[in-house]
Amino acid sequence: MKGNKINGILWLIIALLLTGMLIRGLSGKKLHNKKSWIWHIGPKTKANVEVDFDEYNISSDDTLDEYISSEDFTVYTFDAKEIANIDINSVSEKMFVIASPNQTDIQISISNTIDVRKYFKVYKIGDTVKVERKSTTGVTIHAFNDTEIYVRIPDKTFNSITLNNVSGRIEAENIKARKNEINCVSGKIEISNCEGKLRSSNVSGKTEITVHELKNTIHAETVSGKLELYLPKSADFSADFETVSGSVKTDFTKTGKKEGTISNGSRTYDLQLETVSGSIEVNAI
């Protein structure tokens, strides 16, 4: 864990440079047609799907699934039986990923606050569904702050779920995967009841992880942001923590000041919490 202190500082410098480049690259004319999120109920019109395979660098066998356009959303639907991995990359959008036992397919809805098909790529390549922001100019980052990405998935265990954002918000609820990776630079991360190995990183934003039943390995880190982990009062766990100049608070038993353990029993799962100058809190629920 000692080497992570230097890596954390270097990561902060790199992240700040990347954020500045992203904001500069997105500067330009501001888009209008700003709308609030309302789930569309009523007739929807199906549209034809046309894919520029050279642009997406994918084969003709890996195509976009059928999508539905409505006034408020562009909705893409994929057969969950064909999908093992979910990979979503955004910049400043709000991202919500929810698993539900009532959901039978994978549904990705992007609000029409911008021209969705112009600024996003949503496609299936092999057994992976991918959502990506296209590299564009002439649009201010403010136009995308109001754009929302809703991902509804079945209550099944995927091979991997990867969620990346720069300054936007990420909320993930009830997701299950052998490998879950959720990353931000300055946005807020909220994770509730994630199953499977979880790795989360945030530079200056806040990260909240709530676990009502501890079933998985958790490795969460931040540079200058706040990291909060919520566990049941009766949880049997022992977590390692490390900080350079940040604070560490807990409702459980703590040993050590800048490096040590927070525990309420034995080490059933591997839990690691790290920060450079941010704060760490492990609270009971």
Question: Mind explaining what this structure looks like?
Answer:
The protein is mainly beta and 285 residues long. The protein is 13% helix and 43% strand. It is built from 4 helices and 23 strands. The strands form 2 sheets. The chain has a 12-stranded mixed beta sheet with strand order 1-2-3-6-9-5-11-13-15-17-23-19, with no helix packed on it. The longest helix has 23 residues, at 3-25. Mean pLDDT is 81; it is low at 21-63.
Write the layout of secondary structure elements.
Blueprint: H1 3-25, E1 45-46, H2 53-56, E2 67-69, E3 73-78, E4 85-89, E5 94-100, E6 106-111, H3 116-119, E7 120-125, E8 128-133, H4 141-145, E9 148-154, E10 158-164, E11 170-173, E12 176-184, E13 189-192, E14 195-202, E15 207-210, E16 218-222, E17 226-231, E18 238-242, E19 248-250, E20 253-255, E21 259-263, E22 271-275, E23 279-284
Parallel strand pairs: 4-8, 4-10, 5-9, 5-11, 10-12, 11-13, 12-14, 13-15, 14-16, 15-17, 16-22, 17-23, 18-22, 19-23
Antiparallel strand pairs: 1-2, 2-3, 3-6, 6-9, 7-8, 18-21, 20-21
Order of helices and strands: HEHEEEEEHEEHEEEEEEEEEEEEEEE
Parts with pLDDT < 50 across at least 5 consecutive residues: 21-63
- Portion in helices: 10-25%
Biggest sheet strand line-up = 1-2-3-6-9-5-11-13-15-17-23-19
Strand content: 35-45%
| Secondary structure tally: strands | 23
> How far is the first residue's CA from the last residue's CA?
28 Å
Shape: globular
For the biggest sheet, the summary is: 12 strands, mixed
Helices and strands: which structural class?
Answer: mainly beta
The number of helical segments is 4
C-alpha Rg (nearest Å): 20 Å
What's the quaternary structure here?
single chain
Q: Look at the structure and give the mean pLDDT.
A: 81
